[in-house]
Design a protein that fits this description.
Distance between the termini of chain A: 38 Å
Helix content of chain A: 40-55%
Number of helices of chain B: 27
Helix content of chain B: over 70%
Order of helices and strands of chain A: HHHEHEHEHEEEHHEHEHEEHHHHEH
Number of helices of chain A: 15
Largest sheet of chain A: 11 strands, mixed
Oligomer: heterodimer
Shape of chain B: globular
Structural class of chain B: mainly alpha
Radius of gyration of chain B: 25 Å
Strand order of the largest sheet of chain B: 1-2
Strand content of chain B: under 5%
Number of strands of chain B: 2
Distance between the termini of chain B: 44 Å
């Protein structure tokens, strides 16, 4: 019996190897025509033109009240960005500032759970639009008169429930190519191009962004077509979906990264990784909201208003490659308007709920948890 | 005066420390189990289990059964687990037999080399495998293809397959399984093997018909434990399973935790999935305990203490040494070398002229300039000292209470189950349960929460201590009590010193696990404070890969220093 046990591994490994190949799937025709209303999808591009800097005139009382509170606490996604903002804010206003980077997928859960447990310490929350909407829907955001705080009022938005938020940075989904392995002239210019057999075995996709980014694509194209397209992409092109795609792109193991994100210096600084885009990819709007139960409400309002300044945008852009595009802090396409030719989908109050719903439909279809 | 006498009488009651041990064990283990079991029946799924507006219901389980592919998940999980354990066992048994029963050159180097993977963080190790065995640019594939007479641009190995997952996970199990196999072979009476040889059996026949059957119960027990570790594995699935198209429990739990639509964590779905994982791992732990007991019945102690004469490998001696050496270099050292190479670059780049031009110590400079580093190091040291000490202390008391029959047989079985239960609880589920539990308690210092959370791995310490005390005669404790020593003094002065080697081993094992632990701090601190080395590595990995590798390497050096200190202490204890 024991000897047969020793033979088991060979049989199992052979079985495992056999089971890992891509499944044969039918090859239905894809309809990748534009589906969504162009004006509605481009509504968020208006943020690119709002270039009024923060105006602190008349905020002496607020500054004094904030200084009396002594500190402010920020919760966001990236510690480098938080640290850069905090250092500058403290230097300018002599108010202690600290912050915490939350895993993107846990951010809203964490903030909600802490609030429900009466343990919230957040003064200001920095979230993407769909997550901010969930935060506001939970009643966790305060309603702030942003114009009175010297911030451009057209940056403010409501989720339709209590509280409001103000746009602070824009950032876009981005494909990346390792130009050592892929000629920039050959890059897939449309989604359909990704199904070209020559890219088989060359693509990786970051799993969270693949799911989240599809919310935008599903607004631009037909949502069901997107599910079909991605099923084919995964099955036919041997796409590696993983939590760490960058190492594969840089090493050339998978020289094409599908639905990466932003303007990351770690990749672009290598000198041989090129960003590129396809129509329908998304541009996020990241916003600040003052917590309804902020322990330091004045410092929180001051910080959130200051974060709309050119200075704060530049700091964020330098720290993590995300800034306010209208100030020139963004990738070339976003700041010069070149993306307009590409027809990207700009996140806006008109579309973010639909985007979240599309993402959920997509992930339930391709990556179910139950 | 009477009160003092009553207090002294109470303190001399041997059940008192046992009771205290049980209470602390309950605090460490029960919250996760309760949140998991109860959370599966609390609805809606996206609310905290006992938040306002939640209620009891079967929706979470119903959703799981109504959804697609639960059987597929079970099948893939079973394949991944069985394949990994079988592969790891085959390699471990072969290595153990070669080092314990043959004249393989350099066999004393096998164990230290097998310990090397313990030095590196699991995430970095898995990424190291990706870079080694990637289909296109993996170093192993590149070298293999260079040796082929015909040109080809990919393969032969592809890490992003079920086979690749089985390989990486299987390699991760070899050290543990080797330690079990080696210990089991050492406990086989050499007279049995000598008798078989005198009877005319060849070396192979002795190995297959005498040695291996003798260690079978121990090995099967170790395989059950390895299966538990594979079912709860998170790093390998997170990096490889999605690429391999594998649908296993860990990835399902990850999707429930990580909603890309911007919504809240589906705590109920996580708990419902976790209930199934718990059933599976509980079954495996039961099998482990049962097989270990069987193994103890078959245990044979060496007469005279002389080791069996090693089997001469003859002309196979050096080829076998080359094969084992090459294998160990590839599986144990190569991932560490990849980490060291990456620490000299801003990002991982395959070796070549482009990469050499970028080689520098800048990543180390950047790391040492990082203001977060001192705090992360200090927190990690505090955790590595405090959490294992707490877990080992409680485990020692419980193992003593059970072994020395301080509590009755039935209560002892209950204590044994309680102390062993956490091994069946995957870290990601334990972390989720602890998160919910500590959120509902009045605020405790975050570092203290981490110490209590890390100590949930009480079962590891308990099983090692129980095995150590199992070798002692219960009469020793009785003799100390008869001689007038109180129960605590008997434990402190007689039993604890005798059990010191196993206590030290358990402490070292937990300290290494603590330094490498990622899941617990990632879920509990949500990447915020207090920062520890593993979360800093994780945070740096995306944008500062070279610095992350440098920190991973420093962590490895730290673990090496810790193991060296423990080794020195063990020698002193043995003297």
């Amino acid at each position: 019996m024991f000897r047969s046990l020793l033979l088991l591994p060979l049989a199992l490994v052979a079985l495992a190897a056999c089971s890992s190949g891509p499944s044969a799937t039918p090859n239905p025709t894809l309809d990748l025509a534009r589906h969504g209303d162009p004006a509605r999808l481009a509504e968020g591009s208006a943020y690119r033109t709002l270039d009024a800097d923060w105006n602190p005139a008349g905020l002496g009382a607020l500054v004094a009240a904030a200084q009396a509170e002594g500190s402010v606490r920020l919760d966001g996604y990236n510690q480098d960005q938080i640290d850069a903002w905090c250092a500058a804010f403290t230097a300018r206003f002599a108010i202690a500032c600290s912050g915490r980077a939350l895993a993107s997928f846990q951010a809203v859960s964490t903030l909600t759970a802490e609030a429900e447990a009466g343990r919230a310490q957040t003064d200001v929350a920095y979230l993407s639009m769909s997550q901010m909407a969930a935060y506001l829907d939970a009643g966790l955001g305060a309603t702030v008169d942003w114009a009175a705080l010297g911030a451009e009022p057209r940056r403010a938005w409501y989720a339709g429930t209590a509280g409001n938020a103000i746009g602070v940075a824009q950032s876009q989904y981005t494909h990346f190519a390792n130009t050592h392995d892929v000629d920039p002239a050959d890059l897939p210019h449309t989604l359909a191009d990704w199904l070209d057999p020559r890219w088989k075995g060359l693509i990786c996709a970051p799993d969270f962004l693949l799911r989240a980014g599809n919310g935008f694509l599903a607004l631009y194209y037909d949502p069901q077509e997107m599910i079909g397209f991605h099923r084919r992409l995964l099955d036919e092109q041997d796409v590696v979906v993983t939590s760490d795609c960058d190492a594969l792109t840089v090493s050339g193991e998978r020289p094409l990264q599908y639905l990466g994100y932003g303007y990351p210096q770690a990749l672009l600084g290598t000198g041989f990784i090129e960003p590129f885009w396809n129509p329908g990819m998304g541009v996020n709007l990241f916003s600040h909201a003052v917590a309804a139960s902020a322990p330091h409400p004045n410092a929180a309002r001051l910080f959130a208003a200051w974060s709309t300044s050119r200075e704060a945008s530049a700091l964020s852009w330098q720290a993590i490659g995300q800034g306010w595009a209208a100030f020139g802090h963004g990738p070339d396409g976003l700041t010069t308007g070149r993306f307009a030719e590409l027809d990207l989908v700009y996140e806006s109050p008109a579309t973010f709920r639909e985007r979240a719903a599309a993402t959920r439909t997509f992930q339930d279809a391709l990556f179910p948890s139950n | 005066m009477q009160t003092l006498a009553a207090l002294r009488r109470a303190l001399s009651n041997p059940r008192l420390p046992a009771l205290a041990g049980v209470a602390v064990a309950c605090w460490l283990v029960a919250p996760s189990l309760l949140v998991l079991v109860l959370g599966a029946f609390r609805v809606p799924a996206t609310a905290l289990p006992f938040a306002a507006g939640t209620g009891w219901g079967l929706d979470n389980l119903a959703g799981l059964y109504a959804g697609s592919g639960l059987w597929g998940t079970l099948a893939d999980t079973a394949l991944f687990t069985a394949g990994s354990v079988a592969l790891g066992t085959t390699i471990a048994v072969t290595l153990a037999w070669l080092t314990e029963r043959t004249d393989l050159p350099g066999r004393s180097l096998v164990l230290p080399t097998l310990l090397v993977p313990l030095l590196t963080p699991p995430v970095a190790q898995t990424i190291g495998w990706v870079l080694l065995a990637g289909e296109r640019t993996g170093l192993v594939n590149v070298l293999w293809r260079a040796a082929l007479p015909w040109p080809t641009s990919t393969g032969p190995f592809d890490i992003f397959t079920m086979g690749g997952m089985v390989f990486v996970q299987g390699m991760g199990l070899v050290t543990l399984l080797y330690l079990f196999a080696r210990a089991a072979l050492r406990n086989v009476d050499p007279a049995l093997e000598e008798a078989a040889r005198v009877g005319g059996a060849s070396g192979w026949q002795v190995a297959l018909r005498v040695s291996l059957p003798a260690v079978r119960p121990h090995l099967l027990g170790a395989m059950a434990l390895a299966a538990v570790l594979t079912v709860e594995a998170f790093e390998v699935p997170l990096l490889l399973a999605l690429g391999a198209g594998a649908d296993i429990f860990s990835t399902r739990i990850y999707y429930a935790l990580a909603d890309a639509a911007g919504g809240q964590t589906a705590y109920g779905t996580v708990a419902a999935l976790g209930l199934h994982v718990l059933a599976l791992t509980g079954l495996l732990v039961w099998a482990f305990a049962r097989l270990t007991r069987q193994g103890a019945r078959f245990a044979t102690l060496r007469a005279g203490g002389h080791p069996p004469a090693p089997l001469a490998l003859g002309h196979w001696r050096w080829p076998a040494a080359g094969l084992v050496g090459g294998w160990l270099a590839l599986t144990s050292l190569a991932p560490l070398i990849v980490l060291a190479w990456t620490s000299l670059l801003p990002q991982y780049l395959p070796p070549g002229r482009d990469a050499l031009a970028l080689v520098s110590l800048d990543q180390y400079r950047g790391l040492f300039d990082d203001a977060r580093l001192p705090g992360a190091l200090l927190n990690t040291v505090v955790l590595a000292l405090a959490a294992p000490t707490l877990a080992v202390g409680v485990a020692l008391v419980l193992a003593w209470a059970v072994r020395m029959r301080v509590v009755g047989r039935r209560v002892g079985a209950g204590v044994d189950a309680l102390a062993s239960s956490s091994v069946a609880l995957p870290a990601v589920l334990a972390a989720n349960g602890l998160l919910v539990f500590y959120l509902w308690l009045p605020p405790i210092a975050p570092l203290a929460v981490l110490v209590l959370a890390y100590a949930y791995r009480l079962a590891v310490a308990y099983r090692v201590q129980a095995a150590g005390l199992g070798q002692l005669d219960p009469a020793l404790g009785d003799a100390a009590l008869v001689a007038g020593a109180g129960p605590l003094r008997a434990l402190r002065s007689v039993l604890a010193p005798l059990a010191a080697p196993s206590t030290l081993a358990a402490w070292a094992l937990l300290a290494v696990v603590t330094v490498r632990e990622l899941t617990l701090p990632l879920v509990l601190t949500r990447e915020g404070e207090p920062l520890v080395v593993s979360t800093l590595v994780w945070r740096l990995w995306g944008n500062h890969t070279g610095e992350a590798a440098a920190l991973g390497l420093l962590g490895a050096v730290g673990v090496l220093g810790l193991l060296t200190l423990v080794g020195l202490a063990a020698r002193r204890v043995q003297r």
